[in-house]
Design goal:
About 45% of the residues lie in helices and about 20% in strands. With about 200 residues, it is α+β, with helices and mostly antiparallel strands. The chain has a 3-stranded antiparallel sheet with strand order 3-4-5, with no helix packed on it. A 3-stranded antiparallel sheet has the order 6-8-7. Strand 4 and strand 5 (about 60) form a beta hairpin. The longest helix has about 35 residues, at about 160-195. The protein is flat and about 65 Å long. The N and C termini lie far apart (about 70 Å).
Length: about 200
C-alpha cells in the first residue's frame, strides 16, 4: 500500500491493491511533526471520509458524504472541549472582559491608544497594552504607527477581528437588554437560599 500526504488536515492518500477496490477506508492522520493540528485536539475515533475509486485505485473524497458533513469533519480538527487544544486557549482568551470591551469599542473605526483607554472605562494602562498586544498577535487588531511629535499609534480591527466583534457586540447587547431579568433571578435565588 502506498501512502502520500494530500495536505488536508494531515490526511494521507493511499493507493490500494486491486482486491480492495470499492471498499471504504478510514482516514488516517499524518504522524509527522509537520502536522498542523496538535494531537490533543483530534478525536481518537477514525473518520471514514474517503473511498476507493474502482477504476483509479486511489482514495478520493467520499461521494456519499454531503458538503456540510465534509466541512463538519474538517471543523472537528480543533475541539474546544479538550483541555490542551489551542482552540480552548483561544476561547479562554476571548472570554476575557477586556477583550470583549476593546473589540466592541474599536468597532469599524480606527482609534488612538488614548481614545481607546477613555472608551474602555476601568482598564489600566498595563492591561490595555497587554490585551492589545495579544489581540494583535492573534490577528484580530492591527497597530499603525505614524511618525510625528508625539508618535501617533492607531488601532483598528482586522477582518478577522470584525467577524469576532459581531459576536461580542451581540453578547454585549444581550447583557444590556436582560440585566433586569438577571437581577430578578439573583434576588429570587438569594431569597430561596436564605429560607433554607
Amino acid at each position: 500500500m502506498l501512502e502520500r500526504p494530500v495536505g488536508l488536515g494531515g490526511l494521507v492518500e493511499r493507493e490500494i491493491p486491486g482486491d480492495l477496490q470499492g471498499s471504504r477506508l478510514a482516514a488516517t492522520s499524518d504522524s509527522s511533526p509537520a502536522s498542523s493540528v496538535p494531537s490533543a485536539c483530534t478525536s481518537t475515533q477514525p473518520l471514514v471520509i474517503c473511498r476507493v475509486d474502482a477504476g483509479l485505485r486511489k482514495v478520493s473524497p467520499d461521494a456519499d458524504m454531503t458538503a456540510a458533513a465534509r466541512r463538519g469533519q474538517t471543523e472537528r480538527e480543533y475541539d474546544a472541549y479538550v483541555a490542551n487544544c489551542p482552540s480552548r486557549m483561544l476561547l479562554d482568551r476571548m472570554s476575557d472582559k477586556w477583550v470583549a470591551s476593546i473589540l466592541v469599542a474599536l468597532g469599524d473605526t480606527t482609534m488612538r491608544y488614548s481614545e481607546l483607554s477613555r472608551a474602555v472605562a476601568g482598564v489600566s494602562q498595563k492591561m490595555l497594552t497587554q490585551t492589545l498586544r495579544t489581540l494583535e498577535r492573534d490577528g484580530l487588531v492591527t497597530r499603525g504607527v505614524t511618525v510625528s511629535v508625539p508618535v501617533r499609534v492607531d488601532y483598528s480591527l482586522t477582518p478577522l477581528g470584525l467577524s469576532l466583534r459581531q459576536l461580542m457586540r451581540g453578547v454585549k447587547d444581550w447583557a444590556e437588554t436582560h440585566m433586569d431579568e438577571v437581577f430578578e433571578a439573583r434576588d429570587l435565588y438569594d431569597h430561596r437560599m436564605a429560607e433554607q
